[in-house]
Design brief:
Length: about 190
């Protein structure tokens, strides 16, 4: 096991081109990484410390079309909190047919293509990874759940993550149910 971020940093080049061949040799508790003639040393972690796929029995929650699911996740991510003292806001909530992100000052909601039978709170790193994996193709995302974990599978990718164990705020109370005031504007003018 190698630390991911330092390994990725070693493999990047300043010119944006591929780094070429990456050679990894083990030297006791270190790995010697050679990239484009430069050599670096990284600590090696015991392979037994690497988390394994869970053997917990799971059940299928649903199958979602990739494109609308990707659009929903990408829409709410900018509003998700990154304040570690507020773990109940550091997640993307999947509630019925809505995806929600809040940070205490703003809220983004999007329609989920197929309703989920239960509330799911995805941690921000998992939601960011899902955002990168989902390309918006016309594939399907299979979503399964075990006791505390969620497993998403699409196009050969499998993402397994722990769910956030917190109470998501009642976002529905912030949205007015009805109003006598209505405003219609041209979307292009508003964006300008």
């Amino acid at each position: 096991c190698l630390p991911l971020k330092p390994l990725v940093a070693l493999c990047k080049t300043g010119s944006g081109k591929d780094a070429g061949d990456v050679n990894i040799d083990l030297d006791g508790t270190s790995a010697i990484i050679a990239v484009d003639g430069a050599t670096s040393k990284l600590p090696v972690l015991p392979a037994d410390d690497f988390p394994r796929e869970t053997d917990e029995p799971g059940y299928l929650i649903g199958v979602w079309p990739e494109r609308p699911f990707a659009e929903a996740i990408n829409h709410v991510l900018p509003a998700v909190s990154n304040d570690p003292t507020r773990p109940h806001l550091c997640c993307v909530a999947l509630i019925a047919d809505v995806v929600v992100g809040v940070d205490g000052h703003r809220m983004h909601t999007a329609h989920l293509p197929v309703p989920t039978p239960e509330r799911l709170l995805l941690p921000v790193p998992a939601a960011n990874t899902i955002s990168r994996i989902l390309t918006g193709d016309d594939q399907v995302v299979a979503v399964a759940r075990s006791d505390k974990r969620l497993v998403l599978r699409v196009r050969g990718w499998t993402l397994e993550t722990r769910l956030v164990a917190a109470e998501f705020p009642p976002y529905e109370q912030v949205i007015p149910r009805s109003s006598r005031n209505h405003l219609s504007v041209d979307a292009a003018q508003l964006s300008r």
